[in-house]
Specification:
Structural class of chain A: alpha/beta
Shape of chain A: globular
Number of domains of chain A: 1
Strand order of the largest sheet of chain A: 3-2-1-4-5
CATH topology of chain A: Rossmann fold
CATH class of chain A: Alpha Beta
Order of helices and strands of chain A: EHEHEHEHHHEHH
Largest sheet of chain A: 5 strands, parallel
Helix content of chain A: 25-40%
Radius of gyration of chain A: 17 Å
Number of strands of chain A: 5
Oligomer: homodimer
Chain lengths: 228, 228
């Protein structure tokens, strides 16, 4: 088993911290982003800058056709909700994209097997998994199990009595404030990241969607000054 | 739970039989094919014709970037093996595409949730699963489990004590000859399907790759005359 990893990198804060965590932990980390017709495509430029700043071994953007599957405010013509009371909402929000993390992880798995990596990193965390089913620990465990059954590398490792793929979720139990603190510890330049679901064409955050609210609260709770 | 289904349709014989099986069984079956940079893109035209002939409710082609992940004779610049002794080979062949069925099923899952289908059909079978890890029953079961954890629909059904997604694999234990017989029973026009891994630009089968050999043997064992 080697130290090569594929890290899902969205351009947001969370995945930047996962990338930095694996790079600082001695992994050769290859970043993978998706152009899936998201309205916040600005995040792809952020992902490229983050990959460089944090020290990814490579950065690749895969195009996928998730827009064809519609049914989410992030990909279809549904308004992004603003000014919600995110602290007290436990519903699955309309920004949920059907099976998005399953699709992203399956592409990461294909890339991992192709480049002979046996680690995948993904920035799911406790703040998200109250709302998104594909951010929960049970989902991640089920995917890891699938990965080891689905691939030549997984089957060969199992036959040797070992295990091939490990899915790393270093943020799983962290609050947004803890993620912000971890970013600072790991030297991630958070000004390069973008969390907003509905930025302006120039990439300016709206400040009002769930993601902006959670980010601002994370900064405040971590004792950092608000972002410009 | 409704009767709506997403069926992975490659343009080959096996998935055509799965589609016909579900349509004849009373499902509203929506076919999903992939343009993934495969060298045998001719199969996409076959898929469209099969969808029409068999009676799919719709047919959609999703573009995905699997070529970027290389490492297979079907997507990279590696020769398709010819004249192999397919009856006595149990290795994973070079035509294996890393994690292909995981990627395909995850897209089918996204589409299923978006169109409110709770069935997925896939043409994996016993002939393949000696060679491809992602055709084995254990893989299919692990995916079904993941599907019910990964999605809003799965979580909601589980909370009501039910189950959302069923993955249908009606060919799982069939030989190629049994699949050919099933195609005839179900009225599938096999002349519309293409199994070859390396057809001519006009779509003419090579007759020598593993897929052509298995298909020809299936016809012979089913007592049908060889194809023109």
């Amino acid at each position: 088993m080697n130290r090569r990893a594929v890290v899902l990198l969205s351009g947001g804060m969370d995945s930047a911290v996962v990338l930095a965590h694996l790079v600082r932990g001695g992994h050769e980390a290859h970043a993978l982003s998706f152009d899936y017709g998201q309205r916040h495509r600005h995040e792809l430029a952020c992902a490229a800058r983050v990959a460089r700043q944090v020290g990814a071994a490579s950065h690749r953007v895969a195009s996928i056709d998730l827009r064809a599957f519609g049914a989410s405010a992030l990909t279809a013509d549904i308004a992004v909700p603003k000014d919600r009371d995110v602290a007290h909402s436990h519903d699955i929000p309309v920004t949920y994209v059907p099976a998005r993390n399953t699709v992203f992880l399956s592409h990461a798995l294909a890339m991992a097997e192709a480049i002979e990596a046996c680690h995948i990193g993904i920035g799911v965390n406790a703040v998200d998994y109250s709302g998104y089913p594909d951010c929960r620990p049970a989902f991640v465990e089920a995917f890891e199990r699938l990965a080891n059954l689905a691939t030549r590398a997984g089957v060969e490792a199992t036959e040797r009595g070992g295990r091939w793929m490990t899915v790393h979720t270093p943020l799983l139990d962290l609050s947004k404030a803890q993620i912000v603190r971890r970013a600072v510890e790991l030297g991630v330049d958070l000004s390069l990241t973008s969390s907003c679901y509905d930025p302006s064409p120039e990439g300016r955050a709206c400040g009002r969607c769930d993601a902006c609210q959670l980010r601002a609260r994370g900064f405040a709770d971590a004792g950092l000054p608000p972002e410009a």
